[in-house]
Every structure is written in structure tokens, then in C-alpha cells.
User: What shape does this take?
Amino acid sequence: MTRAVGFRPEAEQEALDIQRWYQARQPGLGDECGAEVDGVVARITASPLLFPRVRGETRRAVLTRFPDALYFRLTVESVVVLAVHGRQDPSRWHRRA
Assistant: This one.
């Protein structure tokens, strides 16, 4: 069953902030990060149960080239991305789990 993917507003903002941060470091790098986020979302959509649970029912999908991850939960019909998080304080996304 393919589920629709939705981002909570905070997670969407985090994804944009991370892309802007990488873009400011090196032109084009933010675009590459955005493409990798899109690829991870596609993998989550195809096989959400392949990703490990990290806190309760919250699962983590790690980006390959960047030190960031998408934290998400499954519902009956969708995948909800709770946070896009790197190495910052994990309590930021724990509150959303």
C-alpha cells in the first residue's frame, strides 16, 4: 500500500532551513540536499516499514550524503514527517514524537 507523505509545518520549515544553510556554504549544495530529501521521501513512500523505530512509533530515515534524517510516523493512509533533523538537540524532535 502506497501512502501519501505529508510534512508537519515545523518539519517543512526545517527542510527549507537545512537546504538554505547548505546553499549558503556552497552554491548548488542546497539543491543537492533537497534532491536527497526528495529521494528519501520516495523511499519512505515505497517501503516505510524498512526504517527503524527510534522512539515509540517514530521512525528515522537517514540521508546518505548529509548528516540529517527525517523522523516520521505512519497513519493508516499516510506518512507524517515530524521533523528533519541533524545533529542538533534531539529534544527538539522528541517533543513532536
